[in-house]
Amino acid sequence: MTLRRGIIALIVITLVGSALFFITKRDTVHLTEKKAVAKVKALPAVVEYLKRVPEGRIEVNGEEESEFHVQVYEMKDNHTATFNWYSVDKTTGEVKELFP
Hints:
With 100 residues, the protein is an alpha+beta fold. The protein has two domains: 1-29; 31-100, Nuclear Transport Factor 2, Chain: A (Roll). Helices cover 43% and strands 31% of the residues. The chain has helices at residues 2-26, 33-41, 44-52; strands spanning 57-63, 67-76, 79-89, 95-97. A four-stranded antiparallel beta sheet has the order 1-2-3-4, with helices on one face. The termini are far apart.
């Protein structure tokens, strides 16, 4: 009887562990630089900026382990005129404006 309970407990633990793994795995995004730029480009403030400044640029201009740093800017008189910087979380896809 003890062996049977042990086997049942092992099966239950395995099933619960597997379910938790797949739930957690499903919620992760792992963005590429291209997708991070697309997320920033879709922000309402950036859409409006690009209407006013059609030559504006959006580029990943830095990276950390968990996020991309995306710069929205234009070239003006041989220097960059930055509209804003954004942080894009590589796992969740969350975009944060760095200078609100």
